[in-house]
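User: Could you go from structure to sequence for me? I need the amino acid at each position, not a summary. Structure tokens:
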């Protein structure tokens, strides 16, 4: 179930950390990015590895930019807004993103794709939308295909791809609904096996079987596991 949304109204956001690392998921795997990790999320997926309990701090725009400018920006592919769910801090993002753009930084949004109205407020600043399609079989929460549909409609004129975390509980109906969204919005679908204790929760044979099921009906699909855990980076 989606929890009640709370939105920052002030010039600060609750942020856990700002750091440089390697993108470990999706088509930009291996790209060096600056990550801004926001706290809080409107979902509670079973497989979530975000620590919602530990300390976070209120960051101002100035504090975030001060930290970002400590890195060699010539080596950075883009700034990844990650979480938690970054779109919960929409007022802050509306102020931060123009400043990042003034510094010639590209912006990569990692999102659970359930807040389309918030996305609409900042979509023109986003260069890459890395969106989830959440499956009830993997998250333990009711799927939100209607919200995903509205979300992808908002991002349709931007570079957008969809990540689908799955395990051996994935259903035929879920596969159909993902393919429908892929076809409707011409999305690259990334199948990402669920992880359990830094190992894939399914066998490679099963993962390829699911890939084939998708490919029989839609060919813009790739099977890509998380790699940052193999690199031992965040
Ligand atoms: S949407 Fe992402 S951050 Fe939120 S609970 Fe699910 S996995 Fe965790």
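Assistant: Here is the amino acid at each position, in order:
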């Amino acid at each position: 179930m989606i929890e009640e949304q709370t939105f920052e109204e002030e010039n600060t956001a609750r942020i856990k950390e700002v750091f440089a690392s390697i993108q470990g998921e999706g088509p930009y795997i291996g790209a060096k990015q600056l990550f801004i990790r926001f706290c809080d999320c409107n979902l509670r997926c079973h497989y979530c590895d975000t620590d919602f309990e530990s300390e976070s701090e209120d960051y101002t725009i100035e504090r975030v930019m001060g930290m970002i400018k400590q890195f060699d920006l010539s080596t950075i592919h883009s700034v990844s807004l990650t979480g938690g769910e970054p779109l919960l801090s929409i007022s802050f993002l509306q102020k931060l993103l123009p400043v990042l753009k003034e510094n010639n930084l590209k912006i990569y949004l990692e999102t659970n794709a359930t807040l389309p109205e918030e996305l609409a407020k900042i979509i023109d600043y986003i260069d890459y939308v890395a969106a989830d399609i959440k499956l009830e079989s993997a998250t333990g929460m009711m799927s939100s295909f209607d919200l995903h549909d509205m979300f992808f409609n908002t991002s349709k004129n931007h570079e957008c791809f969809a990540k689908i975390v799955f395990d051996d509980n994935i259903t035929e109906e879920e596969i159909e609904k993902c393919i429908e969204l892929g076809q409707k919005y011409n999305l690259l679908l990334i199948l990402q096996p669920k992880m359990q204790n830094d190992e894939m929760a399914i066998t490679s044979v099963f993962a390829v079987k699911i890939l084939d099921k998708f490919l029989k009906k839609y060919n813009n699909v790739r099977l890509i596991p998380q790699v940052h855990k193999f690199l031992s980076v965040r």
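One structural detail worth keeping in mind: Residues 1-9 have pLDDT under 50 and may be disordered.
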